[in-house]
Design a protein that fits this description.
Length: about 500
């Protein structure tokens, strides 16, 4: 395929455009092809994406091979039909509408292995100074369904806009999991929602308990939550062409008794999509479980059989990597590494230790930030800083992460853990979950298609994402979220958050 200069207007096959459409779109498309995020509706292109089979012409694409590796290929086209990748190569898909991504890097859609979708915008920008997120989250869970859906929609739209096509959502309550399903259905988004147990309404009394009697006394209500979450998961299993696949989720090992954890693990087996939890989040959790159960959180869960299924464990700052790293690696437990777990900034996290131990790692969103590409970048930068600081003094081996490690962690690793050979890969037969990123335009690239595009992801962010497709359905087109009315989604979600913050202000929370 011969490379030519980028066209002023994207190629969309035989679709015809009026002169007014062309004139209205010109300024926005010039900026979009240069990688400039447009902020106003007037500056955005209004072209419609293809409605049937189509082709994406990529400048670079990260193409999977049969041995579960992937390699960059230049000037390659991808044929999408019936929600799946039909063909990959040059001079393919003749006669079909085409999406011009010839200045872009095309990748499998990103997979976040740990997210609390609805919690992002209500806490963003107000917790970074050290305030607790407890009260905002309590108020969030008290919202009526319509308002909760508005907040969920605003956050899920951001995730999709930044290239995240699959979300393992640890919803902070059953109501939030139900909201996720309603909104994801509307957006045609792929998700593994799971109500966190204990949920927000009961969590903080149990988590911050003064005596262990509080944990024991909570057993009956926690078992009821498990039963309700199991029923929710079975009701929604593989809905919407299989896009919705609920899981079971435990808050953490220090907020469960042996009886409740056994019940939750059995429910996860019944549902069949795996287990999601915060695992050894910090020293306090590890010390509490060691005191109560006589072993580490990792060993306790392994004894209970939690690792006999797909398992995503977030944070792992309290893991003893010398003692438990080999066990995590042997069981294939995924470390969901979340660079923005405490909001913008924060501590480095043990990705270098996990890499050296051979533990599979996923890059997760957690909450507060919904910019997946930004978090992919931060994971690399924070991880390299941690490795440099610990290299000479760490009691366990550490390995310096690369952007290629991050890309695998965002795609292939979580797909393998979920036992989904159809996700996380660009190859014929895989789901058409795709993201294209401008690696040639302003602030990210140089004005030319680069020879090593992966490195330019370190200069990118969510607004560098130009196209996103899930199951072939185009959700972001020329940098614009089109799965719903972008401005309306933002306005509705923002209005609810403003009211929530007003309540916090009346309560004196900001003082």
């Amino acid at each position: 395929m011969r490379m030519t200069a980028p066209r002023l207007f994207p190629r969309i096959g035989a679709a015809s455009l009026s002169r007014r459409d062309l004139l209205r779109s010109a300024a926005g498309l010039c900026a979009a092809s240069a990688g400039v995020g447009m902020s106003t509706a007037a500056a955005q292109p209004r072209l419609r994406p293809p409605s049937g089979p189509y082709v994406i012409d990529a400048g670079w694409a990260w193409i999977a091979s049969g041995d579960e590796t992937a390699a960059l290929q230049r000037e390659v086209s991808i044929v999408v039909r019936h929600g799946r990748i039909e063909e990959v190569g040059r001079a393919v898909g003749r006669g079909l509408p085409r999406i011009d991504a010839r200045t872009h890097l095309v990748l499998p859609g990103f997979i976040s292995g740990h997210t609390h979708v609805a919690s992002g915008t209500p806490t963003r920008g107000i917790i970074e100074g050290g305030r607790s997120y407890q009260r905002p989250l309590e108020l969030l869970d008290q919202l009526p369904d319509e308002d909760l859906d508005a907040v969920t929609a605003a956050n899920l739209a951001e995730l999709i806009r930044s290239g995240c096509t699959t979300t393992l959502d640890m919803s902070l309550s059953l109501r939030q999991a139900q909201s996720f399903v309603r909104v994801a259905t509307r957006f045609r988004a792929r998700g593994y929602p799971a109500p966190m147990i204990p949920g927000t309404r009961r969590l903080f009394d149990i988590w911050y308990r003064r005596t262990d009697a509080v944990l024991q006394d909570a057993t009956a209500e926690t078992l009821r939550e498990i039963a309700d979450a199991r029923a929710f998961a079975l009701m929604h299993a593989r809905r919407n062409d299989g896009l919705i696949r609920p899981q079971m989720a435990a808050h953490a090992t220090d907020t469960h008794t042996p009886d409740t954890m056994r019940a939750l693990i059995q429910a996860a087996r019944d549902v069949g999509e795996g287990l999601h939890l915060h695992l050894a989040q910090g020293a306090r959790e590890s010390a509490t479980v060691q005191r109560l159960r006589g072993q580490s959180p990792v060993r306790w869960l392994d004894e209970l059989g939690a690792f006999s299924m797909p398992c995503f464990g977030a944070h792992m700052a309290g893991v003893d990597w010398a003692a438990d790293g080999p066990l995590l690696a042997a069981r294939g437990v995924v470390y969901a590494h979340c660079p923005s777990a405490g909001g913008a900034g924060g501590d480095t996290q043990p990705w270098p230790e996990a890499l050296a131990a051979g533990v599979p790692v996923n890059i997760g969103i957690d909450t507060h930030s919904n910019d997946y590409l930004e978090n992919l970048k931060l994971a690399v930068l924070y991880g390299q800083a941690r490795e440099s600081l610990l290299r000479a003094s760490s009691p366990v081996p550490v390995r310096r992460p690369t952007v290629a490690d991050a890309l695998r962690s965002a795609t292939l690793v979580p797909a393998q853990a979920l036992k989904r050979p159809d996700l996380g890969r660009l190859r014929p037969g895989a789901e058409a979950d795709l993201v294209s990123i401008d690696v040639s335009g302003l602030l990210v690239g140089t004005g030319a298609l680069p020879p090593e595009p992966l490195n330019l992801l370190l200069y990118g962010h969510g607004l560098s994402v130009r196209h996103v497709m899930t199951h072939g359905h185009v959700q972001v087109f020329h940098g614009r979220f089109i799965a719903d009315d972008e401005e309306a989604v933002a306005a509705r979600g923002g209005a609810v958050v403003r009211r929530l913050w007003a309540t916090l202000e009346r309560e004196g929370w900001f003082r």
